[in-house]
């Protein structure tokens, strides 16, 4: 049986984090474009993908917040 070691916290630099976020955004754009070009593949991917590709409905405006007097 293997022993588990306590997890140590690690931090990543802002530069690395921004690079990973940019890569994730590129992947998201790629898949959305692929699904738009191939609706049959989007249907196979399931309801969540189909919902992402559906146009947004009318959204009511957010309520206005009043500052205290």
Question: Can you walk me through this structure?
Answer:
- It is a single chain.
- With 69 residues, the protein is mainly alpha-helical.
- The mean pLDDT is 83.
- Helix content is 55%, strand content 0%.
- It has a domain at 26-53.
Helix content: 55-70%
String of helices and strands: HHH
Rg over alpha carbons: 21 Å
Strand element count: 0
* Biggest sheet features: none
Please state the average pLDDT score. Answer: 83
What overall form do the CA principal axes indicate?
A: extended
Question: Layout of SSEs?
Answer:
Layout: H1 14-37, H2 39-45, H3 47-53
Helix pairs in contact: 1-2
What structural keywords apply?
extended, 69 residues, mainly alpha
């Amino acid at each position: 049986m293997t022993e588990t070691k306590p997890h140590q916290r690690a931090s990543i630099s802002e530069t690395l984090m921004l690079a990973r976020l940019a890569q994730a955004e590129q992947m998201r754009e790629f898949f959305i474009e692929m699904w738009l070009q191939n609706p049959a593949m989007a249907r196979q991917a399931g309801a969540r993908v189909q919902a992402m590709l559906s146009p947004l409905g009318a959204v009511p405006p957010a309520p206005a917040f009043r500052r205290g007097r």
